[in-house]
Amino acid sequence: MDKVHWSVGVLPETDQSVRPYLLEKAVKQAKSAASDLNDSDLAALIDEAVLWAREY
Fold this sequence. Notes:
The structure is a single chain. The protein has helices at residues 12-34, 39-55. By secondary structure, it is mainly α. It is elongated, with a radius of gyration of 15 Å.
């Protein structure tokens, strides 16, 4: 499936209101996706994410 990326400008007040909601939703999705991982697999996934984040 092809994806289209949008850029949307919003007021700072809207950004401050929406950002916590999006973060909470992302955390719930991440917890759900990782719920079946054992400790070593989860640690490896976290290490991979940290390495990725350091590159950007």
